[in-house]
Amino acid sequence: MNYGMKGRELRYKEDAKKTIDKLQLASYNEIYILSIGASNGDADQHFINALVDKYTAIHYTVVEPATGPLDDFKRLIESNQERWSGVKFSFHVQGINEYLEGGGTSDKYDVILACHSAYHFHDVVNTLCCLYDMLPQNGMLFIRIETDGGLEVYFEHSEQLDIPLYFIPGKEIKRLIQLHMPATKIDVITGATTVNVTRCFDKDSIYGNNILDFMNQIVDVRHSRPPDEVEKCLKFFREQCCYEKGDDVLFDYIDEDIIIWKK
Ligand SMILES: C[S@@+](CC[C@H](N)C(=O)[O-])C[C@H]1O[C@@H](n2cnc3c(N)ncnc32)[C@H](O)[C@@H]1O
Predict the structure, then answer these.
(1) Cβ(151) to ligand 1 under 6 A?
(2) CA neighbours within 13 Å on the CB side: how many for 257?
(3) Which residues constitute the domain of residue 204?
(4) Is residue 129 within 6 Å of ligand 1 at its C-beta?
(5) Under a CB-based contact definition with an 8 Å cutoff, are residues 67 and 96 in contact?
(6) 195 CA distance to ligand 1 centroid (A)?
(7) Is position 1 within any domain?
């Protein structure tokens, strides 16, 4: 049986289109986007494709501290040169906390994307409020976050592992928004995918190692952490977060898009 991240990609593509369609900003020509923790642009590409169908001039700012994945993002831009010709990219190679503390709060964006990166906000409430304040009326703060399933079990028990993991569940983000921005309107899209992670247990699998990097928030985790730590994480992941079906090791991946509209 074939389970994989493909189902998740398809969902992301459709949801990005629906979400961008809902935008009702003052301008239908020019738009300013901030993407936090964009990595290699895998998730961003769906937003960019939806944006170029609606806007003619797109200013796309990326704040991402990891240079390796950013090089992949730049290659993705090259391969979409024609379709994305109306997009002007700028890159800040730093974390969001440093960007905001360094004066970023005075920048203005129509849309702010944080796909699986809100885990890295140092002061979650303050960062959410800063980002919200940077938006115009009808602007959108989009937070994609792990909410349930095997990965949440992994994150929530990270104190048992030696790898330090940053995690805040989707339900906590929603609680904080309702508490600190009570007048705002929130849409939530929840998506579930069953992922075949059998290859995570094959040390030579590129696909498996990419999944391990994603869940451990570390580039090349297998080689950058001591082998006994990696083994401990794999054991915990397999025994506590996954289940088996025939020869396959599967886990349920459930994340949530929390879409906050500026009043
Ligand atoms: C789990 S990945 C998500 C990648 C991509 N947005 C996605 O949804 O597939 C988290 C990303 O956040 C980046 N990151 C780590 N610390 C960060 C920080 N302080 N500010 C912004 N991004 C950060 C990581 O380098 C990584 O690329």
Answers:
(1) no
(2) 21
(3) 6-261
(4) no
(5) no
(6) 21
(7) no
Indicate whether 229 belongs to any domain: yes
99, 23 in Cβ contact below 8 A? Answer: no
Cα–Cα distance between 202 and 189 in angstroms, integer? 33
**pLDDT digit string, tens, across residues 159-207:** 777 777 888 888 899 999 999 998 899 999 998 888 899 999 999 999 9
Looking at the chain, the number of H-run helices and the number of E-run strands are: 10, 8
Cβ 212 under 6 angstroms from ligand 1: no
CATH number of the domain at 34, please.
Answer: 3.40.50.150
Ligand 1: residue of 117, 123, 145, 219 to mutate (most ligand atoms within 8 A of CB) is 117
Is residue 90, in this structure, part of any structural domain at all?
Answer: yes
Number of domains the chain is built from = 1
Q: What is d(CA 224, CA 256) in angstroms, rounded to the nearest whole number? A: 30
| 217 conformational bin, left if phi > 0, alpha if psi -120 to 50, beta if neither | left
pTM higher than the cut 0.85: yes
| Closest protein CA for atom 2 of ligand 1 | 116
Find the 64 Cα to ligand 1 centroid distance in Å: 6
CB neighbours (10 Å) of residue 215? 23
Residue 29, domain member (yes or no): yes
Q: Which residues of 159-173 are buried (b: 16+ CB within 10 A; e: fewer)?
A: eebebebebbbbeeb
